[in-house]
Amino acid sequence: MQTSSQGKEILVGIDLGTSRTAIISNRGTKKMIRTVVGYPKDIIGVKILGQTRVIGEEALEKHSYLNLFYPLENGVLKETSEKDNQATMELLQHVMTLVGAGPTDKVSGIVGVPARASISSRSQLLKFTDSVMDFSMVVSEPFMVAYGLNRLNRSIIIDIGAGTIDLCAMKGMIPGSDDQITLLKGGNYIDDIFMKAVAESYPEVQFTPLLAQKIKDAHGFVGDAPEAVVVNLRTGGRPVPHDLTEELRMSCESIVPDIVESLEHIITLFDPEEQEEVLQNIILAGGGSRIRGLDSMIADALQGFGTVKISRVSDPDYAGAAGALKMASELPTDYWNQIGDVMGEEG
Predict the structure, then answer these.
(1) What is the pTM of this model?
(2) Partners of 111 in the beta sheet?
(3) Mean pLDDT over residues 86-93, rounded?
(4) What angle (nearest 5°) sits at the alpha carbon of residue 164, between those of residues 222 and 264?
(5) Mind listing the pLDDT tens digit for each residue in 252-270?
(6) CATH code at 28?
(7) What dihedral angle (degrees, nearest 10) is formed by the CA atoms of 327, 332, 338, 343?
(8) Which structural domain range is residue 197 located in?
(9) Strands 37-40 and 66-69
(10) 339 in Cβ contact with 175 (< 8 Å)
(11) Sign of the CA dihedral with 68 first, then 254, 159, and 119 last
């Protein structure tokens, strides 16, 4: 990205998610978009849209006459087709328009990726960010959250996204690969189980992945139900009330055993004299942190370790991006290569 000394300096924090992407800049931008790009299936779709592609929520709303491309799968870039690469590029270009970046502005951005994303995946993402930013870095998403909360020592971050669940031990230094665990059982995994459960209980209903996600986001819970989850589902085109309480509970609880097992390992990475304090500093982040009762269920499962306190970030949508922006604002770019993978030129 070519710039001139006459332009503004823009710092950007991006939480690039499988389902949603959050963007925050030092110029006041705070946006959330769906991580999807839609292309018309034929010329009729082009005529209806008045353009050849659409990004985000609008793509989902108009999905019936679009081919949808989700640039990320399980939290990492897809590399299966040229169209996937095109969708990734156009998504990032759209992000730059949201932050108001002009041709003469210098843009430096930090982008979050799953904790154990492969070297090849990080390198591929940096190639794309290098095309739209002057200086960019990729770091693990739970580390971004920890930095934003100033929980950099004796704490554990559990970041529950759509594609992955990332757990990270913060020990007063930049976390290494051994300090982090990525589970491929995030929100999309819950949605898949939910769809199968509903299909088994009510084989006659019309139930889509988007509808499953909306119901989970609005009513997701574990343990005792706060209230019955009764929604209208269409059967033969007619809306009919259906009780989905048990199907939703079972689906949301499906991620708990793996989280608990991973936590049991993460706790042992701390020195014994630190573990009591660590158990008081376990933080849930990401969209999945909204699942009601999840903090209590995880804490109950860890009773054998001692007294456990699990808190939630106050803003699950933007905690990662806010941490990335804070990092970008506080650390000069010539220090970024000490933290993550970097692309671009300083100065």
Answers:
(1) 0.91
(2) 14, 138
(3) 92
(4) 65
(5) 999 999 999 999 999 999 9
(6) 3.30.420.40
(7) 90
(8) 187-253
(9) antiparallel
(10) no
(11) negative
Angle, helix 141-149 to helix 319-330, in steps of 10 degrees: 70
Q: Angle, nearest 10°, between helix axes 187-201 and 209-219? A: 110
How many C-beta neighbours within 10 Å does residue 300 have? 12
* Whether residue 20 sits in one domain with residue 136: yes
Write down which residue in 253, 286, 301 finishes a domain.
253
115 shares a domain with 39? yes
Residue 76 pLDDT > 90, yes or no? no
pLDDT of residue 2 exceeding 50: no
Tell me how far apart the alpha carbons of residues 311 and 226 are, in angstroms, rounded to a whole number: 19
